[in-house]
Structures are given as structure tokens and as C-alpha cells.
Design goal:
TbsP-like_N; two-stranded antiparallel sheet; alpha+beta; 297 residues; 43% helix
Length: 297
């Protein structure tokens, strides 16, 4: 049985399973990150699957939805998170962190709701109990102190929850990315895409060699048909086909990608994108640097 998701508090830890139908209200980014991390530790193959887990999940008949998200394990409590867009955005600034949040939303483990007005304190409330969470400075990590025991807290926010707009994570989960490329091209391409999205440091949205470009580059290194590659990127939730038409043009202009016609017995020829020497030569671990150097040049 996986461990219960719990967050560190002064004097120990606070299990989220101790709250029936839990609601987290107005968490600061460190607290929200701690809750995401608690779920990741409890169910890493759901929240942050590695390549081996993605291969195994590919045959999981329990998966559902076009995103390929696995159903929520029954041991994990479903939590409603009512937070400001700034709080959500601050913990989803890099691809890997955002993909974890997306995985939890896809799996219906997190119900992400937009908080319009900040609250005096962060709250964690269930049907039978509720408390204020006050940040305290720990020796190593930011921790929190549980204050109070109020069973009416959740009821006070029912109207706010009912009227809150959903928060949409624009970054797809790793599971969705892998499933989209595996479906269109097979395991080898899907694995390379996921690995190229896993740089050592976080992959921020501001990186000029961002997730969309990296995914398209992998397809070019495998000699993918352009239309199928753009559809895979769209299925993965990385962007629209027109976005990847612009990316293809940028890569062609930089001398990184070439195109070739592929005749078909019936219908118009298809176009294949092929990696040019600066892109085809380096190992996968060096591809992003090679692309960056060519684009900067």
C-alpha cells in the first residue's frame, strides 16, 4: 500500500487522508508544492512516471480519457485546491513541475479552482474538521503549524467553491505526452521525447529551446512525416498544428531541419522532416544545446 500523502508540520506530519473530502484554501506556493510532493511520494507512477513506468502504463486498461491519464488509486484522497492563479503559476513555471500538477488534475486527484480574493490564512478543511496552516521556519525546510480544529470551515467555503472557475494547467502530463507519441510513432520516439523534456535543471517556459521545439526536434531526428508529427504534438497537448508549422519553418531557416517528399501509391506525396547534420549528429543529451547554438547563431 502506498504511503499516505502528508505534509510536514511542527512536531510531525499532517496526513491529508485524515480530512474527509479535503479542501485546501489559499496555499502559498511552498505549501502547494508540499502537497503536490506529498502526492508524488505516495503515487510516483501516477504523478511523475519515469520511462519504465510510462512503458508499463501504456498497456494499463484502467486508463481513460484522451489524455491517457490513469484512474486515481483509491488510496489517494481527492483534494479540492482553491488557490490564486499566481500560486498555481509559481509552482508550474517549469515543464516537469507543471506536468506533475497536470497529472494530478488529469487523474481527478486534484480539483483545481481559481481563488479570486486572497484569504487571511491558508486553510485545510474536511467534512468533520478543519484548521489554519501557519508557516513556521524549520531547521531545513519550510514547515507549517496546525492551528485550531473547526468542523465548520469547509461549509463556509461551499459557495466560493461552487462559483470558482476551474484552473487549467496548460502543460500536459508526462503520461499524455508519452501516450500521444507512442500512439503515432511507437515506443522509441515516445521515449526520446520524454527524455528530451527532462533536462538536468528545470525547463522554464522562457527557455528558447522549449517543450514544443524539443518534441518536434525528436520527430525530425526520427524522420517523421510532418503532418503526423504535428498531430502527435497536438494530441500531446503541446500546441496547435499551426504552432508547429511555425516551429518547422524556424528550424529550416536555422539549417537544422530539411524536408523531403515521400511518394504514395494513392494521393498526394507526403512530406517528411529530416534532421540536418547539426541536429542529427549529437547524442540526445546534447540535442538541446546544439539547437540553441544554431538558433543563437
Amino acid at each position: 500500500m502506498p504511503p499516505e500523502p502528508a505534509i510536514p508540520i511542527a512536531g510531525g506530519s499532517l496526513s491529508l487522508e485524515s480530512f474527509a473530502d479535503p479542501l485546501l484554501v489559499d496555499p502559498e506556493p511552498p505549501l502547494l508544492s508540499a502537497v503536490v510532493e506529498a502526492y508524488r511520494e505516495a503515487a510516483p507512477d501516477l504523478v511523475d512516471p519515469d520511462v519504465a513506468a510510462l512503458r508499463a502504463l501504456d498497456g494499463d486498461e484502467s486508463s481513460g480519457g484522451e489524455s491517457g491519464a490513469s484512474t486515481t488509486p483509491p488510496e489517494l484522497p481527492r483534494i479540492s485546491v482553491l488557490a490564486t492563479p499566481a500560486a498555481f503559476g509559481s509552482i508550474a513555471g517549469g515543464f516537469r513541475a507543471a506536468s506533475r500538477l497536470a497529472a494530478l488534475a488529469d487523474a481527478d486527484a486534484f480539483d483545481l479552482l481559481t481563488l479570486a480574493e486572497p484569504q487571511p490564512n491558508a486553510l485545510l478543511a474536511g467534512d468533520e474538521t478543519g484548521c489554519v496552516l501557519v508557516g513556521v521556519a524549520g531547521e531545513e525546510d519550510a514547515r507549517w503549524r496546525r492551528v485550531g480544529d473547526d468542523p465548520t470551515l469547509r461549509d463556509r467555503y461551499e459557495g466560493t467553491v461552487a462559483n470558482a472557475d476551474p484552473y487549467r494547467v496548460r502543460t500536459p502530463s508526462r503520461r499524455r505526452v508519452y501516450a500521444a507519441f507512442e500512439d503515432r510513432f511507437g515506443e522509441a520516439v515516445a521515449v526520446d521525447v520524454v527524455r528530451l523534456l527532462d533536462p538536468g535543471p528545470p525547463l522554464p517556459a522562457s527557455d528558447p529551446v522549449g517543450p514544443r521545439l524539443r518534441a518536434y526536434v525528436v520527430g525530425a531526428r526520427h524522420g517523421a512525416h510532418d503532418r503526423t508529427l504535428r498531430r502527435a504534438c497536438e494530441d500531446a497537448g503541446l500546441g496547435s498544428p499551426s504552432t508547429f508549422t511555425r516551429i518547422k519553418r524556424r528550424l529550416i531557416d536555422a539549417g537544422l531541419v530539411e524536408t523531403e517528399r515521400v511518394a504514395r501509391p494513392v494521393g498526394r506525396p507526403r512530406e517528411r522532416v529530416v534532421a540536418a547534420a547539426p541536429l542529427s549528429g549529437p547524442p540526445l543529451s546534447r540535442v538541446a544545446d546544439a539547437v540553441r547554438e544554431s538558433l543563437d547563431g
